[in-house]
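Subject — a protein and its fold
Encoding — discrete vocabulary of local shapes:
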Amino acid sequence: MNHDRVVEAAVRTLAPYVGRNMAASAVRMHLAKLGLTGAPLTEAHVEQLLAELAPALCVFVGRAKADDVLAGVREALRNDRRNSP
């Protein structure tokens, strides 16, 4: 998957809950922590990213809502792949 599209989908989905700046910062920081900056990402990489984001997201919205939000990131990425040329 395209790195920038993954970042944008994650930020777009997380932003309503934590704000755009915090979402962007968290996504970029966790990708860097995982050593995944700029490279194409696999589904396994995306799952690693979501696992890294989950604990802090739980603090903001609770576990059940965090699970829903992370599922929303997965859905946004599926839609992006379907709609990309």
Notes: The mean pLDDT is 94. DSSP finds four helices and no strands in the chain.
